[in-house]
Amino acid sequence: MLVCFGSHCIDRYHFPERDVCYAGGGSVNCAVHAQMLGIPAAFAGSAGNDKAGELILRELKRYGADLSHVHIVAGNSAVCDVFVSEGERILGDYDDGVNDGYSLTEEDLRFIAGADYCLCDLWGPNQKYFPVLKKLGAVIAYDCADRDETDPRVREALPYTDIVFFSAGQDDPVLRQRMLETKQKGPAIVAATLGEHGSIVLSDDGFTVCPACPVTSVTDTMGAGDAYAAGFLAGLYQKKSIAEAMAQGSREASETLSYHGAFPQEGDPHVYQ
Q: Is residue 63 within a helix (H) or strand (E), and if so which, with residue range?
């Protein structure tokens, strides 16, 4: 099982004619994509007791994710404002909502640590749980987005992280040196997604490169990195090689480019005035 913990949010798209809301957040997206690939997944964390929270939980349930460690908290769910320009998503204001101040319980942490893999992203103070999770035997994957060790959250997480994902521009000597230095800080696997240039992974076997899957057009890049991480971890769960796991991540990421939102959602669009 893959347990994704931490951030949830509503991705509120601002289109010229109206605002459209989609369930999202890195951990939610990864759990859904794992389920789409046939890998049992769970989301552990909070959700607000508002319409946005209902939407997030409804989509997770529709894909069959385990929600036994979701806690409904009085208040608004997190919201991220999104703008799209020529297929590229641009993130605006972010309201943490009930994510702010929420804490996982000891039971939650035991559940997370008992998974084959657990994953969270940069958003939210989830790095503070890593020492406890590691003592409990967790295999921790961490998505640090486009940040590096200059971000204190990344510095805090790396010594306890087994697999780290981040986004970069292209494969070059500077990137490879960064990946080597990152691996020395703890992770056994360092994965960099490079957009149209594919991805590169550093493991104990050295560097492995995977091209991006060809696409005819790009509607929206939202959730592509989350889809890649889910596909890659699903590959490891399925005992695939690093190269095969990368290819699966690339395929999963490419499919997200054809629609708005991080994954296909029932009754799109969800509109809240």
A: none
Looking at residue 227, its amino acid is A
CB 210 within 8 A of CB 247: yes
Write down the domain spans for the chain. 2-256
Measured distance CA(27)–CA(114) in Å, rounded? 17
Q: In this structure, are residues 24 and 80 in contact, taking their beta carbons and an 8 Å threshold?
A: yes
Contact 76, 100 (CB under 8 A): no
CA distances from 261 to 149, 168, 264 (A): 29, 21, 7
Burial bucket for residue 66 (CB in 10 Å: 0-12, 13-18, 19+): buried
Q: What's the mean per-residue pLDDT of the chain?
A: 93
Per CATH, the number for 2-256 is: 3.40.1190.20
Is the per-residue pLDDT at 271 higher than 60? no
What is the 8-class DSSP label of residue 260? S
Strand partners, 40: none
Element (H, E) at 203: strand 199-203
Tens digits of per-residue pLDDT, 150-163? 999 999 999 999 99
Q: Which residues of 188-217 are buried (b: 16+ CB within 10 A; e: fewer)?
A: ebbbbbbbeebbbbbeeeeebebebeeeee
Q: Is 270 helix (H, G, I), strand (E, B) or coil?
A: strand
Q: For 204, how many CA atoms within 13 A lie in the half-sphere containing its CB?
A: 4
pLDDT in tens, 142-152: 999 999 989 99
**Residue 174, CA atoms < 13 Å, CB-side half-sphere:** 3
In single-letter form, the type of residue at position 220 comes to D
Which one, of 143, 181, 188, 164, lies nearest residue 6 by Cα?
Answer: 143
Q: Ramachandran region of residue 228, left (φ > 0), alpha (ψ -120 to 50) or beta? A: alpha
